[in-house]
Amino acid sequence: MTRHFFGDTGTLLGRSLRHITRSMDTIITTTVMPIMFMLLFVYVFGGAIQSGSDSYVTYLLPGILLITVASGISYTAYRLFLDMQSGIFERFQSMPIARSAVLWAHVLTSLVANLISLVVVVVVALIMGFRSSAGIGAWLGVAGLVMLFTLALTWLAVIPGLTAKTIDGASAFSYPLVFLPFLSSAFVPTDTMPGPVRAFAENQPVTSIVNTIRDLFAQQPVGGEVWVAVAWCAGLLVVAYAFAMTTYRRRIS
Amino acid sequence: MIRVQALEKSYKDLKVLRGVDFEVARGSIFALLGSNGAGKTTVVRILSTLLTADAGSAGVNGFDVAAQAARVRESISLTGQFAAVDEILTGRENLVLVARLRHLKDPRKIADDLLDRFSLTDAGGRKVATYSGGMRRRLDIAMSLIGDPPVIFLDEPTTGLDPEARIEVWQAVRELAARGTTVLLTTQYLDEAEHLADRIAILHEGRIIVNGTLAELKQLLPPAKVEYVEKQPTLEDVFLTLVGKDKR
């Protein structure tokens, strides 16, 4: 880390943020799929689903937020891939700057872009009848957890961004992530699932994150599950960051 | 200014550089000539600290590319094979971005001056995505000049450009050298080397097989065939004979 790390990251962050504000469609398309899922599940399947909750949209929203992030981070891979392709990545790397600032700028941009998408999705949910009595503290807790999840997935997205050979390869990795919430407590309670599926659903990261957010929205005590959720996110973050930096060093040596 | 000794580089089993040596004098234009895949870009990437060599040494502006990479990066600018510009930003924003990353004072003034120098003032407020190939390349070179680095690498700067844009780039390169910048140029166009370079080296199968001024290179061949006594061998003849390929 050189003395210019923060300045350079700020300059490059300004550049990527301009990309976002000039192509708001990337934010819109990120929110389309989760909103469609939300409409489909609330107005088509929702009536037949026994969620044990008064309002299905309120039950559903935490999982939808995670789907939003999973589809949003593919744009980080996409933008990074374009930088690699266009040669601008090499231009930055051959300049006297803090080299890792190039990656950090993309990662911070992902946080900002996903935050905007998440706000859009929450607004749509409010229109559809989502209600929460949660106070500022609980909302901050939700925001913190979702941002930690975003940060972890974004570092994961950096890997295909650096290594992909085609633009499709750069974004395809996110599909499994988008569907992970379906095999969790996000849409239906896990207790109706057959044994092995239920075992997977209850022990994968999405379930603990979804349950924690649901409790925070409902002003219920979150219990031990919040630590499971944070541990999953932090663990994924550490592993993804390590792999991303290894990949990055290999690319620039 | 640039010193390369016994440079070697392999990609897996493929030996791209098998001991490359050359030197470039301060303020001169040096052309590295070779066919596609000869290893020109590999040399440039090593010199601009984007790639590490397997063996040998390279120095730029007195700094070793492996041991003093940060100092080397302060001394150089790289203009790669494809115009490395940001399509979504405007021309002016691209220049301001690079000026900020070089930690210079008054990035806007620098941007305006360069837009003017490269006849891009009118286009400065437009997105680069709307630029022609020649304008993009001019912007690309303008971005490389920010901060007045003493050494500039131009990797096939005119590949894919139309003849007019090519001449614009040549003009820009000549101006650079006139201001004292050292230019290392790679090209597969023989006339480009012939027009621009003070010295020319031919890179073939991972080695420099000849290195000299255009006049010296021409003397390597017998002074033309009997039937064509009035015609001097062109650099094209020299090149194709040396790399052992029949003309056409």
Describe the SSE topology:
The complex is a heterodimer of chains A (about 250) and B (about 250).
Chain A: H1 5-22, H2 25-45, H3 56-72, H4 74-86, H5 88-93, H6 101-127, H7 136-163, H8 167-172, H9 174-179, H10 195-202, H11 205-217, H12 225-251
Helix pairs in contact in A: 1-6, 2-3, 2-6, 3-6, 3-7, 3-11, 4-6, 4-7, 6-7, 7-11, 7-12, 11-12
Chain B: E1 2-11, E2 14-24, E3 29-33, H1 40-47, E4 55-60, E5 63-64, H2 69-75, E6 76-79, H3 91-101, H4 107-117, H5 133-145, E7 151-155, H6 163-178, E8 182-187, H7 190-196, E9 199-204, E10 207-212, H8 214-219, H9 235-242
Helix pairs in contact in B: 3-4, 3-5, 5-6
Pfam families (chain B): ABC_tran
InterPro entries (chain B): AAA+_ATPase, ABC_transporter-like_ATP-bd, ABC_transporter-like_CS, ABC_transporter_ATP-binding, P-loop_NTPase
Keywords (chain B): Antibiotic resistance, ATP-binding, Nucleotide-binding, Transport
In DSSP terms (H or I, runs of 4 or more residues), the helix count of chain A works out at 12
The termini of chain B sit apart by: 37 Å
What is the rounded distance between the termini of chain A? 17 Å
Going across the major beta sheet of chain B, what is the strand order? 6-7-8-3-9-10
What share of the residues of chain B lie within helices? 25-40%
What average pLDDT do the residues of chain A reach? 88
The overall number of domains of chain A is: 1
Arithmetic mean of pLDDT of chain B: 88
Rg of chain A, rounded, reads: 19 Å
Radius of gyration of chain B: 19 Å
The largest sheet of chain B, given as strand count, sense and whether it forms a barrel, is: 6 strands, mixed
Uncertain runs of chain A: none
CATH fold call of chain B = Rossmann fold
Multimerization state:
heterodimer
The general outline of chain B is globular
